[in-house]
Amino acid sequence: MPVSERRAERKREILDATRALFDERGVRDAQIEDIARAVGINRAIIYRHFSGKEELFAETLVGYLDELDKTLTAADDHSNEPVDRLEGLVVVFLDFGSAYPAFVDCAQALLRRRGDELMEEVSERVMFDLGRAMASCLHHVVDVLEAGVKTGEFHVRDPYLLANVFYTLALGVMNLTTLQLSVREQNPGLPAVDAVPFDEVKAYLQQAAVAMARGSS
Q: Distance (Å, rounded) from C-alpha 182 to C-alpha 195?
């Protein structure tokens, strides 16, 4: 096997092991040593393929986003009205995040970094792959928003900007559903906590997405 093919195969093994550990333990508990052990290599070999942990996480996120893109493609029915399509995409995204909490953790970890900082730690090629994967997912929302603008249902100046807002908002909402604690004031000055009903959270986010699409100018 040519060197380039062996290198590509080893890189894929590392990414597959990272994804498996993320899904099993979560991002915080998956260590480079564990990934190397799962592949059967020394951790130093990982750094021959990735500039650092951030780049490895970014490429793993690309895998999640590619899977999300396929899920959104399968779920979106273009014969439905724009409002129904938008509400459906919200549910698909939240269900995906619920099924893969490590996807949410990984995406949020990268969102917390400034763009210029991330560019210093992640290669241009990986940043391109990450941007391509994100744009593919966002395009589903953009397509729905543009369809709604054509029918007069939505009023959106920049569909891609609003799609990015939805993406970030939905990731934040997943924090609430993962934590499963909603805080309220039971008595004056006395806080209490409630469980978080996932279906109600979905409904709120659906309503918020439609309201923003209808009210943007």
A: 6
Which structure tokens are listed for 102?
Answer: 């490590």
| Mean pLDDT, range 72-95, rounded to an integer | 96
Number of alpha carbons in the 13 Å side-chain half-sphere of residue 76: 24
Amino acid at 89: L
pLDDT tens for each residue of 145-159: 999 999 999 999 999
Beta carbons within 10 angstroms of residue 211's beta carbon = 10
Find all residues with CB under 8 Å of 158, minimum gap 6, and list them: none
Q: Helix (H, G, I), strand (E, B), or coil: what is residue 118?
A: helix
Domains, the chain, in order of start with CATH, read 1-49 (1.10.10.60), 53-215 (1.10.357.10)
Separation between Cα atoms, residue 98 and residue 176, nearest integer Å:
11
Q: pLDDT by residue (tens digit) across 6-64?
A: 777 888 888 888 888 888 877 777 778 888 888 888 778 887 787 777 888 888 899 99
Q: Taking the CA of residue 79 as centre, how many other CA atoms within 13 Å lie in the half-sphere pointing to its CB?
A: 0
Q: Are 127 and 118 in contact (CB under 8 A)?
A: yes
Tokens 């995204």, residue located: 93
Mean pLDDT score, 131-142: 95
Tell me how many helices (H) and strands (E) the chain has: 10, 2
Tokens standing for 178?
A: 């993962």
Q: Are residues 49 and 10 in contact, defined by beta-carbon separation less than 8 angstroms?
A: yes
Pair of tokens at residue 2: 């040519």
